[in-house]
Amino acid sequence: MTSKQVSSGINRRALLAGAAALPVLLGLRISLPAQAQTDPLASWNESAAKQSILDFVAAVTREGSPDFVPVPHRIATFDNDGTLWCEQPMYVQLAFALDRVKELAPMHPEWKNKQPFAAALEGDMKAVAESGERGMLELVMATHAGMTSDEFEKIVTEWLAKVRHPRFNRPYTDLVYQPMVELLAYLRASGFKTFIVSGGGVEFMRPWSEQVYGVPPEQVVGSSIKTKFQMRRDIPVLFRLSEINFIDDKGGKPVGINEYIGRRPIAAFGNSDGDLEMLQWATKAAGRRLGLVVHHTDAEREYAYDRASSFGRLDAVLDAAPINHWAVASMKDDWKRVFGFENVR
Amino acid sequence: MTSKQVSSGINRRALLAGAAALPVLLGLRISLPAQAQTDPLASWNESAAKQSILDFVAAVTREGSPDFVPVPHRIATFDNDGTLWCEQPMYVQLAFALDRVKELAPMHPEWKNKQPFAAALEGDMKAVAESGERGMLELVMATHAGMTSDEFEKIVTEWLAKVRHPRFNRPYTDLVYQPMVELLAYLRASGFKTFIVSGGGVEFMRPWSEQVYGVPPEQVVGSSIKTKFQMRRDIPVLFRLSEINFIDDKGGKPVGINEYIGRRPIAAFGNSDGDLEMLQWATKAAGRRLGLVVHHTDAEREYAYDRASSFGRLDAVLDAAPINHWAVASMKDDWKRVFGFENVR
Predict the structure, then answer these.
(1) Which of A97, A234, A244, B191 can bridge B11 by disulfide, Cβ–Cβ 3.0-4.6 Å?
(2) In angstroms, what separates the C-alpha of B306 from chain A's closest C-alpha?
């Protein structure tokens, strides 16, 4: 990245990335410190996927380029599960729901004879999966509603601090993909505003998204249940109801992007068929665009699953990638390391 | 505002306010340019309302102060109609809907015999008002749905460029309150992120909010209708459906703040009973908070309406203000000028 490109990419977010940009704003022509010249995508191998990211960012941030995009329109949207953090052996939020079912079971003796609760209590994941979308919704409603939004945030935060991933024996928030965290930071340093657009529950992600990804709560879009405003003895609360408000998946992702962000992204990042429409919405429009699909090809360092995972399909998005010129990042081939706690290999 | 306060209020948004902040970031101790020392609230008289704003901002931005609030938590939410721009003789969006009814009438001969459309076509505003919330919804559905989101944005933009306010003979976007525009900028320069939280339609406000208020589309929360993602000959569109998605009014405002922003504001600004719950949600919590109610007391320069307007009530919020220590800004007494095109009196 040349200093000219840095200059044209400057905005309020770029400034956060460090003092490197300040001399430019002040009109000083001094050389950039070494820090700004280190590889912003150090955990990526020098392959086609990395090059497509670098080329895209260079094109949209270079003033005078036919592909130049003004800072306010540099919107990038990221799926979460399987794109920014590990979604195996099950969605983290499902693990949370199953733990909550166990915790709440003494108050619900009827769950012993009612699916999918009985399966959840017995740890029969096959039966849980077979309960389908309806079963998942029942689990979510029973475990995510019936408290205030403040209480729910506390429950999520305490659970994440306590629980470990069954294979890696680390907090789930350690299992975020280091190359993607670097990509988020690189885009922000290039004047992008980064958003999460996830099928997961928005109030499950917001308590930790800023610390883990640098994405503040107001830039997290997700699925939600309805809440109701109440005054309790002169204290206002938002009470979480057992009613779906919005499902931010598949065709719901462009809908959510329009509703919650109100601008069309010029770059989108996903890994499953739930991200297909978001990738279409971001890339099938005039001007330079970037779509990228994370491909889980590394059973050794993470998981290898192709075309179908236990809770979602990947067929359509992998088929659509070459047709639409979306980059595909193979974990095994394109990433020097998957998690931040690994050594670079 | 002392230079110490400026320094502690600095963040990425403050930087946008101008180069005044840069020396501080660079660690230089030079005096601030004259620009930064001019009154940021120049259109406000030196009265209690202005002082309560200055005291609040000083308290939450002064590092070491017991009331200090870190930058990411400096969230301020503003109602739009009657708080940031003129809502008389009717909501601007209603004027838009009525014009659209007239434009679409040739395709809807049945409207001549159907309320509230017949009243709208005859300009009988009393009958339109009497059709109540249900009538308003019918007008909105008939005029705001049935096109793509891109098409709707174009319709709104062209209408606003063309139409003039019946009394002031100016574009509606000229009829924003200069003291409130200064307040938005002052808060941003003090490290706040400013949001609009309006009962009005979100896609009616987003096309012009950034230019007029400095509030980007992704920081506008409002009412909405449902949209549906469609692929039309390989081109993705969002189609606007005749179905209410969310009403961002009264108890819906805290719900919308939680859903779309995900952080609780520490300051809120409104003018009608539709803003009561937002003001409660922002102010009835631990820590220093600011609530402010704009009071329409100036028939000469704007409008004077107390307790009830044609399309909304003001009783509850005016009664609640003294009890909750919310500031009340009287247009007549507290504002040197109402609109930017006026001379300061």
Answers:
(1) B191
(2) 26
